[in-house]
Structure formats: structure tokens, C-alpha cells
């Protein structure tokens, strides 16, 4: 059973500058599946298309972004929703906050800076449920905030009076007030220092454990995925290059790009200089032919520069898009 099926998704930005039009292929043929009751991580360097993928998945596509192909289908308890076809009104009324909610980096964009936190809760809840009894509403919110372990006076604060970590907790409280099927968190802890980060991730994990919904956790920080995600997808230049249960991604990565990300993580006591990759991620307005990673790949062979590698299923939920992988598997298996 799946909560979300994304198939062959393509989403591009079309921009005009000085009369020259450019198409940035930010998400280019992405397929993935989210299941109920899991934390699914999406990793990859800055600008590889993570936020764009989330925009499409959450139904917030606006020009210059446009979907050029593929499908994004949810199976909520309340029924099926094709997010690329559903009307804005339907999305607003029945999907946002109730089925899909969103926690962003910094969270100031969801909290109104000139209104007390309680007012933001009120705004969101009124548009969705209508508040008949203000007293009942207040006690529901207070209960929810208490359940998440936040001090009750956060509700009477202005966002700027709260610390960054507390603001992120409030954003998580907002995102979970309707107990949605999917909570999307885009770099939720990137602006926070490590100790505060841990507390926020712990909260997200606890909520997921208690309500058994799905969390889509997007961050470039592999250490966060190692600690929190059940499965991880690695994106490079608009594509998923590898996906596996977290332990496999970290212990037995098969794509050279994943290996590079993992080798770059600090290891206590290891003072050796890490090997940097040559070059930089490609310009998505003009990506390289074949495997998009091949110009930087230490293991590239001729075919990598001409043919896009398809996703190969390695078993146990491990998928990878690399020409070198099946070859290796065969030689390994061929060994005595
Ligand atoms: N509004 C926009 N107009 C044009 N290009 C954009 C826009 N937003 C993002 N991009 C481009 O799309 C690519 C993917 O960006 P993004 O999805 O934000 O990546 P990530 O979240 O992984 O850092 C980048 O090359 C970025 O420059
Ligand atoms: Mg981003």
C-alpha cells in the first residue's frame, strides 16, 4: 500500500532574461513512492531540485515552474487525489493542512510576524473548520501544544520573541494540528545549531511515531538522514540516483555519488584530507548527456557519457541508477 505515487515527474522553470529563454530542468523524470507510517528522506546538494520536487508534490506549482510530464497521486483515507489535476479550491479546502502540511526552513513564512502565534493558529483553523466555539478551540490548541511539550506561553508570543528552535517547534505544532497523512519538512533544521537541531528532529520523530503518519524529510544534511529517516533517496541534478533503507544507503551505497556524500561525512579521529570531487554540479539549463554525474564520476566509462542509466532494482528496496552497478554485482557474485 502506498500513500503517494510519483511517476516520471518532470517539472521545469522557464525563464526569460535579456530576451534569451532558458529551461531549467529542476526535476527530470523522478519516480518514488511514499508509504504510510515512514520517514522518507530526500538528500542531495543545494540546487539539485529538492524544493522543486516538494512544490509539485504539495500542489504549489506556480510560474515560472511548470509540470511537463508524469503523475503525482495520493491515496488518502478520505479518497484518491491526483494533485496535478485537483482544483485550487479543493486543495485549499480538503487537502492543505488536513492531509498534507508543510514545515519550512526558518518558518517565518508561515508565522505572521505581526500577529501572536495563537492568531496564526486561529487563521488556519478558521479557514478550514470554522470556529463555532472559541473556548473549545483554545483548549484544543493548548492541549495540542502541551502534548508536543511546548511551553503554553508560546501561544501568546510574537514570532520574533521566540528562539529559532522554538519557532520551528511552533511550525511543527501548526503542521500537525489536523493530524495530516503527510508532513513535508524542507530543511527544517538547517538554520539551527546542532543542539537545537536535535531537539526539533526528536519532536518530529516523536510525532511521527505517535501518529504513524508519513514524513517527507528534505535536507542536504546526510547526518540528519542517518539519525531520522527510514529510507533515503539521493538526488543529483534533478534526478534520483539511488534509494534504499537508510542503513543500506550508509553501509552499502552503490552509486558513486552516494559514496562521495557518505565519505564526506566527518569521522571522529580521522584527520585525513577528504578527496573532493572534480568540477561542480551541472547547470540544469544545459545538463550533460548520459548520466548527469559522469563528468565528475571517478568510475565513469564511455557509456556513461551517452546513455542515461535506468533505475536498477538491487533487491531489498535498494534501487540505483548507475551503469557500473550490474557489472560489479556480477563480478562480485562470480567470485568464489
Ligand atoms: N523561481 C525559479 N526560477 C528559475 N529557476 C529556479 C527557480 N527556483 C529554483 N530554480 C532552479 O531550480 C534548480 C533546483 O532548485 P531547488 O529545487 O531550489 O533545489 P534545492 O532545494 O535542492 O536546493 C536550481 O538550479 C535553481 O536555481
Ligand atoms: Mg531547497
Total DSSP E strands: 12
**Count of individual helical segments:** 10
Mean pLDDT: 91
CATH architecture of the domain at 4-99 and 180-281: 3-Layer(aba) Sandwich
Ligands and ions found = adenosine-5'-diphosphate, magnesium ion
N- to C-terminal distance: 39 Å
What would you report as the Rg, rounded to the nearest angstrom? 21 Å
The CATH homologous superfamily of the domain at 4-99 and 180-281: P-loop containing nucleotide triphosphate hydrolases
Biggest sheet descriptor? 8 strands, mixed
Taken in chain order, the helices and strands follow as EEEHEEHEHHHEHEHEEHHEEH
Beta-strand level of the residues, as a percent range? 25-35%
**If strands are numbered along the chain, what order do they take across the biggest sheet?**
6-7-8-3-9-10-12-11
Q: Which stretches of 5+ consecutive residues score pLDDT under 50?
A: 330-336
Can you offer a commentary on this structure?
α5 runs parallel beside α6. This protein is of the alpha/beta class and 336 residues long. Helices cover 32% and strands 25% of the residues. The protein has a domain of 198 residues: 3-Layer(aba) Sandwich (Rossmann fold). The chain binds adenosine-5'-diphosphate and magnesium ion (MG). The site of adenosine-5'-diphosphate (ADP) has 14 residues, from β1, β2 and α1. Magnesium ion (MG) binds next to α1.
